[in-house]
From TrEMBL:
This is Iron-sulfur cluster assembly protein. Pfam families: SUFBD_core, SufBD_N. InterPro entries: Fe-S_cluster_assembly_SufBD (IPR055346), SUF_FeS_clus_asmbl_SufBD_core (IPR000825), SUF_FeS_clus_asmbl_SufBD_sf (IPR037284), SUF_FeS_clus_asmbl_SufD (IPR011542), SufBD_N (IPR045595). NCBIfam families: sufD.
Length: 376
């Protein structure tokens, strides 16, 4: 385990080859290399409907009133803690996505953020997504380190997702940050009446990471589904804190977390379901499971339910264990070698999130990342 106070996540350090990238759909896309935008695409049709999709600094200049209304004022605040304060002070990239009322975007929206391991620059990115009433989007996000280096740098990433009444958001993310990057990642959704966010995130980093996935169910009937998979390997430590806060009546928050640990690595799942007073008819469920592939690894699954109201439903499940020997015996009795049998068991264990990725090419990419981490 590692203590956030012992890291350099609140420090700023002092962007190099342009990476190639694959566009997985015909929808909008934005690609950044460290602090530079290297590709940006938004169709004239969507722009005519009022959709805004650009880097965060351009958005601050062109649409100041709109950005200032939502930027670190509603879901995440600058004075929340020292990490968010440092983020606001030293943020050096990110994007702004705004979807007007009643606009439905059929094609997935993609964002790729590349980190160059050879540079000593800090990696502080801010993503702000606002979906107005009755809008609908699917968003794909990837953070990727290119290259190898022993230079230790800090990362501080905040993603704010505002879902106004009746908005529907599918959010997919694949995190592949490098070994030299110690990173804090906060993704937080803020949902109004009958809004929904479906989160599907693969935590596949190589370095030490603290990842917070939060959903605040502000509006009546709002609904958040949080699905996360993580693999820790080598000597890295990853902590995934997932919280759903039911603030309104008949709100629904479900958490599903599955993780695999190899070598001497550590992985902790903290799941928190909090039903506040007044949120009658709400539902808070969570499941956290960790699969150990090494006797030297450390895994924790900590379910927490905080219930301050009657007439609600809530439940949790948690487990930390090894690969089921009966499953292995069955597969090996069908002629599969042990390594292949174990790989199939792991795939099945993680499939709950893989099947939620809206673009098949990205689902295949996440599967490829999983295979790579298991082979490393």
């Amino acid at each position: 385990m590692f203590n956030i106070d012992e890291t350099n996540l609140t420090e700023r350090t002092e962007s190099a080859n342009i990476p190639s990238f694959t566009k997985n759909s015909e929808g909008p896309i934005l690609v950044q290399q460290d602090d530079k935008v290297i590709f940006e695409s938004l169709s004239q049709e969507l722009a005519a409907k009022g959709v805004i999709f650009t880097d965060i600094f351009t958005a601050m200049q062109k649409y100041p009133d709109l950005v200032n209304k939502f930027y670190m004022t509603m879901s995440v605040r600058t004075d929340e803690d020292k990490v968010t304060a440092a983020h606001a002070a030293f943020m050096n990239g990110g994007l702004f996505l705004y979807v007007p009322k009643n606009v439905v975007i059929e094609q997935p929206i993609e964002a790729i953020f590349y980190h160059n391991a050879e540079l000593s620059d800090h990696f502080f990115k801010h993503v702000l997504i606002v979906a107005e009433e009755n809008s609908e989007i699917s968003y794909l996000e990837r953070f990727i380190t290119k290259g190898n280096s022993d230079k230790k740098v800090s990362g501080n990433i905040i993603v704010e997702v505002i879902a106004n009444s009746e908005a529907k958001i599918k959010f997919s993310g694949i995190d592949q940050l490098g070994k030299n990057l110690t990173c804090y990642i906060k993704r937080r959704g803020y949902l109004f009446e009958n809004a929904s966010i479906d989160w599907a995130v693969g935590v596949m980093n190589e370095g030490d990471v603290i990842a917070d996935f939060d959903s605040v169910l502000e509006g009546k009937g709002s609904h958040a589904e949080v699905k996360a998979v993580a693999i820790s390997a080598g000597s890295q430590n990853q902590v995934v804190d997932t919280r759903v806060t039911n603030q309104a009546t008949h709100s629904i928050g479900h958490i599903l977390q599955h993780g695999v640990i190899r070598d001497r690595a550590g992985l902790t799942f903290n799941g928190i379901g909090h039903i506040l007073q007044g949120a009658k008819g709400s539902d808070a469920q969570q499941e956290s499971r960790v699969l150990m592939l090494s006797n030297k690894a450390r895994g924790d699954a900590n379910p927490i339910l905080l219930i301050d109201e009657n007439e609600v439903t809530a439940g949790h499940a948690a487990s930390v264990g090894r690969v089921d020997p009966e499953e292995m015996y069955y597969l090996m009795s069908r002629g599969l070698p042990r390594e292949e049998a174990e790989r199939l068991v792991i795939r099945g264990f993680l499939s709950s999130v893989l099947t939620e990725i809206p673009v098949k090419e990205v689902e295949k990419e996440l599967l490829s990342v999983i295979e790579r981490k298991l082979d490393a």
